[in-house]
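Illustration: ABC transporter domain-containing protein.
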Amino acid sequence: MALKQRSTSSNRSPFTKHVKIHSPIHHTTNTQQRMSSAYLEVKGDTSSHFPCTLSWENINYTVHGSTKDEKHILHNVTGRSAPGQLTAIMGPSGSGKTTLLDILADRVSSGAIAGDIHVNGRPRDSHFRLLASYVAQEDSLLGSFTVLETLRYAAQLSVASTVSAQERELRVQEAIDDMGLRSCEHTIVGDIFRKGLSGGQKRRLSIAIELLSHPTILLLDEPTSGLDSASTHAVITYIAKLAKQNRTIVCTIHQPSSMVYHMFDNVMILAQGHTAYFGSPHDSLAHFASLGHPCPQFTNPGEYF
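Result:
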């Protein structure tokens, strides 16, 4: 999708479409209908995950500051994530990680966006949200609900009404197993007044909620934020298993451990909105060494780069 977006002063919801699509290829009505049908067929009532490659090319993002000066957040960022792959977007605070993820998720409602986003080589369209789910950095859970109650309640709200009660319950049970929550399915979430799930379990529950709609593309913003090393490793382990189910997964992450860093299939390292590196974690060591920045022995590349 060739993206062009301008800021607006309207009071429309942030989820309202503000992007005008200018496709470089003219599609007839029949072609557009076939593309729409393909999107809908993928998301329907099937439990299989139709393989989708998400690619982005020359993504630029500009916002206007209070002084009306333009601020360039992203500069010609290009990358891709294929089915079965877990891709990490890394970089220091303010490098544009979350901004890029939000653009990929079609969640940006202001500023000017330019570039191309494709799903399986086709321009991303309004049906993209039928394929993709987004997990925010902050957990939004009801502390008085158990894990099982939370998922059943979420299934009532998010799963299509055409899905039978039996299929809906099957999705709940699958999500519990996929995120390793079986041992705590009857534990309350908890809050500041009641002890409940650990931070890592809450994060896995938030991800499990998004699995109920059977997304083929999963986008996660800082899924390990605020977690200790053991919980971080557990969360990424389960996310990596989800990718092996023919899903395409992209997440942002800040300074992962060396072990977690090498669990990703691809890493994109951003620096001040520019792409410093995109490729496999293993190849990143040789890449930066060739530029005169070798990672010192016994140093975590996730922190060093």
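Reading the tokens back as a structure: The longest helix spans residues 29-43.
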